[in-house]
Amino acid sequence: MKLNYKKISASSVVMAFALIGCALPLQAANLSDQDKQFLTAYGKAHDALVGDDLAGAKKAGADLGPDGADLSKSKSLDEGRAAFGKLSDKAVKLAAGQSGYYVAHCPMKNKDWVQTSTTIANPYGGKEMISCGEIKK
Predict the structure, then answer these.
(1) How many CA atoms lie within 13 A of 121 on its CB side?
(2) 59-95: pLDDT as tens digits
């Protein structure tokens, strides 16, 4: 049997382009400067809540502008964490597929958040539950 290398090569090229075309939509979009600023301020709020620092969380909320209004006005850590949960929904969408960001999940609170480390730092339970959670795949 004689192989036709031209047909094999053409088929390989077509298949390669088809695979690339399928993979392109899976790549994350580049973050805008505004998105990066949001994630930076969000990270500060995360760190403050991990440390049970309401004042730091409120300041980070103010840095988030209108998105962080509820967090900046929080009167307790519980209120701050509830406001942070709403911010986490946006952060999870922005961070999806981005390198350097990890989405974590707390099974006890059934909440997600974004962090920049693979070491769990749970903002929803503070110092008492700092290591509760797991990085989502």
Answers:
(1) 17
(2) 999 999 999 999 999 999 999 999 999 999 999 999 9
Amino acid sitting at position 70: D
Do residues 68 and 58 lie in contact, with contact meaning Cβ atoms separated by under 8 Å? no
Give 6: exposed, middle or buried? Use CB within 10 Å, 0-12, 13-18, 19+.
exposed
- Cα dihedral angle (26, 31, 37, 38), rounded to 10 degrees? -40
Read off the pLDDT of residues 120-129 as tens digits, 9 standing for 90 and up.
999 998 898 9
Tokens of 89: 């929904």
**What pLDDT, on the 0 to 100 scale, is given for residue 29?**
74
Block residue for tokens 């949960």: 85
- Alpha helices for the chain (secondary structure H): 5-23, 33-50, 54-63, 69-72, 77-95
Cβ atoms within 10 Å, residue 60 = 26
